[in-house]
Amino acid sequence: MAQVAVIMRVLPSSVDIDLEELKGKIAEKLPEGYEIKSSGVEPIAFGLKALKLVVAMPEETEGGTEALESLIKELPEVDEVEIEAVHRLS
After folding, report:
1. Which residue, 33, 46, 67, 81, is the most exposed by fewest CB within 10 angstroms?
2. pLDDT tens track for 47-86
3. Helix (H, G, I), strand (E, B), or coil: what is residue 44?
4. What pTM, to 2 d.p., does this model score?
């Protein structure tokens, strides 16, 4: 089964959120077949930083990235999830 890479930006609910810890919580919640391929931190404003993630997921997922976004938004430490791009992995 082919996979896609989802490039996303996760905005924490507070400047006090540890982004590495948040990344770990997201990784724990991911269903089978999903995997964080890379991550980084992007400064936003006034000390707020976003967690940038590249998540590999099955291409044939019903609803596209909606389920992934909802899963991450369930975490109390997450304020917003923005999908920046989706690319097919070969």
Report:
1. 46
2. 889 999 999 999 887 788 899 999 999 999 999 999 999 9
3. strand
4. 0.90
